[in-house]
Amino acid sequence: MEESKDRVKNLSRRSFFKVATLGIGTAASFLLGLPLIGSIVGKGKIFLHKTYSRLVPVKDIPNSFSPVKRPSKYHFPKTDQDAYITTKKMENVWVVKKSEKEITTFSPICPHLGCRYDWDQEKKLFVCPCHNSIYTIEGKVVSGPAPRGLDTLPTEVKDQDVLYVEYERFKVGVPQKIIIGY
Amino acid sequence: MKSGFNKWFKERFSLDGMFNAVFDEAIPGGSSFFFTLGSATLFVFGLQIITGIWQLFYYVPTVDHAYESLSYLRIFVPYGWLIHGIHYWGANLMAVLIALHIIRVFIWGAYKKPRELTWLFGILLLLLTVGIIFTGAALPWDERGYWAAEVGTSIAGTVPFIGHFLIRFLRGGIAMGQLALSRFFVFHAILLPGITMLLVVFHLMAFRKYGSVGPWKASKRIKTGPFWPDQVAKDLIVSGLILLLLIGLSVYFPPPFTGPADPNDAVFLPKPEWNFLFLYQLLKIFKGPAELIGTVGIPSLILIIFVLVPFIDRKESHNPVKRLGMMIGGFVFVALVLIFTLMGFYSKPPGNENQASAKPVLAQTGIKKEISKLSPEAIVGKKLFETSGCTACHVISGVGGKVGPDLTNEYKRGRSRDWLHVQITDSKTHYPNSIMPDYKNFSKIQLKGLIAYLLSPHPASLPASVKKINTLSGNRSKNKTGTAKNSSQNKTGYSWAASTAKTLAGLGLPGKAASIIGNVELGKQLYQINCATCHGAEGKGGVGNPGSYLGKVPELNPISRVLFNKDPQKFANNIDRFIQHGSIPAGPHPALKMFHYGDSYALTQPEIASIEAYILDLNHVNRAEIRSRPLPRQFFVLSIWIAGLVIVLLVVIWFIYKKTLRKSSGD
Fold first, then answer.
1. Is the pLDDT confidence value at B72 over 90?
2. Which of A45-59, B158-172, B486-500 has the weakest average pLDDT?
3. Contact between chains at B63 and A145 (C-beta distance less than 8 A)
4. Which residue of A7, A181, B163, B543 has the smallest Cβ count within 10 Å?
5. pLDDT tens, position by position, B421-450
6. Is residue B643 part of a domain?
7. Per-residue model confidence (pLDDT) at position B347
8. How many of the other CB atoms lie within 10 Å of CB of A80?
């Protein structure tokens, strides 16, 4: 009788310690686990400062449809903020000029998986070397795995007819155009 | 004394139990070379750990130094090429060995009850290895690794629901950069290998519990052989051969220098390593919204099937003949993977093949037709346009450089003759920031011809068939070299060498590109786009440069002795200063000047580095030449000698052993 009472007492003592160990363990894991996970998942967006970069006077952009079907590529200096590293580099965009008023600017990054596409003068199409995504000069998908057409960038014409572009980056591989940074 | 110490030590610390657990086992049917694949994989994994740690003494995981630090290890550190080579080829070989090991286990039915967990731990190890190979490939932060990582993590980003979280976890942010590299480094060098080591122990523990499955015929399983030393000896023989193979590969097939990562690059064709090629090929089949089937669906399906294998095939028999369904399934799977890998290997994206070779090249054969349409004046202009270096910067009919605007059918832009005259002779009048050189030394007739040519209709592009490497400028140089050599020492006392030395002395310091080991192949492509129009195909003499003492654009193959140096670093320094800052040739009115490709950002530093590697290669200097001793080939000879010595020694011991056996049995 005494013995079994002891056992019950012992058992409850033991089960209490089990519960306590599990409880403290779980609480500690969560307390530390959340910050640990939180610190390791990177930021979803890189918003530096929204700036318009000067590209080129509009009148100097050759017409992209006549006499030759060919878009123009323009470089401009850009400051890249990569975590704690700031680099000045040359970025570029593709500019398609239909007329003085109709100018489209494309991000140089293929919306499929983020490679840089190029203009193929023979085919008169944009071709991405990675997985053969092919686009028309208007940025529409002709063939290949791209989920959406080329991404257009906001432009502005100021300072007596000079084209400015706001460089933006978009999420790749999805049909929607989701902005993720400047 | 020794036994005393042994006793004392063993009382306190014994490894006997561990030794027995690892080595003391009977193998049904005896030892076999078929069973060495697992241990060979483990051996290579061990090599990866050692060479991996050794690389860490030199490698730094930062975006601006990863490539350089690895180049330094491979070129300047004694045996650095060997350490990196073994690590690189070891990774490739490990993938092969794992595949063979899985196939072996599959055919022998070694995953069957009660060995399911051994199989499952193995599948986990396979996944970890894939992860290690993928993250490791990015660490050199070279073109190949960078783009593979960019595309690979982008694919992870397209996974439904968790994609956005996944890509941030993998990259440490939304874009590829330093945070991504740090992360790949931790995954590759710490986390994944750590987990792998733990799982290797589990895999071996699960394996040891029931031991080797042995041959599938019961009659052959009755006779057993010991694991130690029979199987261990066979394992070591295979491992020794593997080590020799890895050294040989590192010496004769060193991993390529693909040039540092250049996020702005649109010339490099990113293709994954061979072990990911079948997935790459799958990706091309499924388009648009169906792409997820290729990127996520099929790989997940393969994984699920792998996991389910021991639970699908539950027949007791291990004999492949009695498991025909499984064998056919396995065979089809392996065949598909091989076919897709080969397809991926040989595939070329459209547009890429002509991108490199055709664009900058002037074709001779097809031009005749076009010339017939031109006026005599314009024909003079056309020749001038092609030989005076205009094509270095300007495109006509799809041929020429990209620095300046396309001049195809300039007449449609409504330019007047006078406007063009001013533009050619003094472009700053129209564009204050123009980088176009002033061509003041053309005669009136020449200018007239040039303008006439510019105002003539041009075909939009030349047919691809006529775009051969046979360039006008290249041919011209053949006639020119003779005269050029004479003119380099002409009456005015001008010496090309002295003038080059003087120009060099006046140039700014070498840029970053000079210290980067570029990629020759990429450099060749870039050279053809940017340099060949003036310096000629393969650098063999350039176009004429009226107004300069030399009379032509200097050839780069062979390059001026003033710039040449056997030391690749010094050689690169010399030419880098020209490419970075540009130069003005000596002479009263040189029509052509070397463009400042670096200072103007027309080319990125990695691109310049690759062009330099190509120019060095043209002059038979290897930019990536190993600068430490002993040289790889010397070391290979040494290792062959050592291997031979070991074999001779073993044979001798074997004979002595047999003799003593015979003697003892004779007694």
1. yes
2. B486-500
3. no
4. A7
5. 888 887 777 766 566 767 776 778 888 888
6. yes
7. 79
8. 15
A4 pLDDT tier (thresholds 50, 70, 90):
low
Structure tokens at A104: 């489209």
A42/B349 CB distance under 8 A: no
Burial class (CB in 10 A: 0-12, 13-18, 19+), B159: middle
* Cβ neighbours around B76 below 10 Å, total: 14
* ipTM rounded to 2 decimals: 0.76
Residues B377, B452: one domain? yes
pLDDT exceeds cutoff 70 at B379 = yes
Mutation to test the B interface, candidates A86, A100, A115, most B Cβ within 10 Å: A115
Task: Answer yes or no: do B154 and A114 touch at CB < 8 A.
Answer: yes
Do B592 and B645 lie in one domain? The reply is no
pLDDT for B176-220, tens place per residue? 889 999 999 999 999 999 999 999 999 999 998 888 888 888 888
What is each CA distance from B592 to A181, B381, B440, B453, B637, in whole angstroms? 42, 16, 11, 19, 51
Q: Name the minimum distance, in Å, from the CA of A147 to any CA of chain B.
A: 5
B463 to chain A: closest CA residue:
A122
Q: Which tokens hold the place of B474?
A: 């290249």
Tell me, what CATH number does A124's domain have? 2.102.10.10
B239 shares its domain with B386: no
- Could you tell me if residue A47 is inside a domain? no
Q: Tell me the CATH number at B428.
A: 1.10.760.10
Same domain, A80 and A112: yes
Within a domain: residue A79?
yes
- The CA distance from A44 to the nearest CA of chain B, in Å, is 5
The residue behind tokens 């004769």 is B252
**Distance to chain B for A153, nearest Cα, Å:** 17
